[in-house]
Amino acid sequence: MKELIHSLKGDKVIWAFVALLALFSFMPVFSASSNLAYMRHGSGNALTYLLKHGAQVFVGFFILYKIHKVPYHYFRTISRVMLPVVWVLLIYTLVNGKVIQGANASRWIQIPFIGITFQTSALASLVLYVFVARYLSKTRETPITLQNSLWELWTPVFITIALILPANLSTAALIFAMVVMLAFIGKYPIKYIGVILGAGIVGLTFFILVAKQFPDAFPNRVDTWINRIDNFTTDKPDEDDYQIEKAKIAIASGGVYGLGPGKSVQKNFLPQSSSDFIYAIIVEEYGLFGGILVLSLYLLLLFRFVVAAHKANSLFGKLVVIGLGFPIVFQAMTNMAVAVELLPVTGQTLPLISSGGSSIWMTCLALGIILSVTKKEEEIAEELAEKQKREDALQRMIDKQLQEEEAAEKAAEQAELESYSIQEDANPLEPILKKK
To answer: Which PANTHER family does UniProt cross-reference here (predicted)?
Structure first.
């Protein structure tokens, strides 16, 4: 175990927060899954779901461990190669949506032979963030202009978002917001950011008008998220209101100290209690203290991302940490905001805590790249420390040699002085007396 911990490179604080969130996830997932077990098997035994979640977390940490060993600058090239592949996967996802757990599954594809579902938009967002970081960190002889950045940067961004938008508005909006934030931090001209924001608003408005005018042309989830926005702003009763009401009842029932682990009542009535609304179950079982603790862990993780970005010695490394780290925390905030009805229902999971393989794996992939950046800084620090040790050792050897030479010179001088003193003290008549 000590060897494994010693082999972990990068920011140890990030490792600690990630491990805490992952370990804590087993308790609410096990509790919330009992409802699924009862509905599907009639037994209420959630051990199968717990083992499944454990396997997903294990695979996620395996991905995290392997990715953090890869030098992060490799992902600069990988993002360019993967972006067209991601577009193909997104198109395939839109065309081949299936029903999973009663919902339109146009967000997922099923991996052949092994039967695992995979959310392609999660992978697309990671690739896009690294791609944007690569563009913003490029060394240029001429300043950025709107004309060249439209083709090199914003065309790939809008293509990716357009392929995600019909199935998942919240993810598309989150990606666009994160890309704009990344562009601002990467010192992309603010006047151009205003133009891009205007173009994004116009494009979204046009898409909504087309979707309303031709509803059969977008049969996936366009109507769903349009209705969610309408119902959130007008307070019309619908299925989402049922979810929100049950979530608020769960939060109110938890009080300050909570009902205790596994004692949630609303998990039996709240849909998606182990994924989208798991934060409500956490507050119900662990109270206000538990809810604040989870919120604090994400905020501390955000602070650590800021520290890691500040320590990065390259602009690409800084932007990668921000582009991959901030969306994890913002997604968590979105999930918690939905549970307390600050936002309409979005379908965003709580990173590292909610059940769901692709969500956990993509979060671990992002964290692995971030830790690769911090590992590089750690390696540089270790190299500098080792170099300083060698220089100190060499200086000590030189000082020792100089001291020895100085001591030898002093000894020779002392011997010469003593010899001269003996000659002066000798009796000058001694040879004559010996002769007589």
So the answer is: CELL CYCLE PROTEIN (PTHR30474), PEPTIDOGLYCAN GLYCOSYLTRANSFERASE FTSW-RELATED (PTHR30474:SF2)
Phi-psi region of 103 (alpha: psi -120 to 50; beta: other; left: phi over 0): beta
* Number of domains comprising the chain: 1
- Could you tell me the pTM of the whole model? 0.83
Write out the DSSP string of 102-147: TEEETTEEEPTTT--EEEHHHHHHHHHHHHHHHHHT---SS---HH
Alpha carbon 208 to its chain's center: 31
- Cβ atoms 253, 259 nearer than 8 A: yes
Asked whether residue 431 is domain-assigned, the answer is: no
For residue 424, tell me if it sits in a domain. no
Residues 6+ apart with CB under 8 A from 59: 357, 360, 361
Q: Whole domain around residue 99: which residue ranges?
A: 2-386
Question: Does 425 reside within a domain?
Answer: no
Sole residue written with tokens 């960190």: 137
For residue range 213-265, list pLDDT tens digits in order: 776 666 555 666 666 766 666 666 655 677 888 888 999 998 888 999 888 88
d(CA 38, CA 29): 14
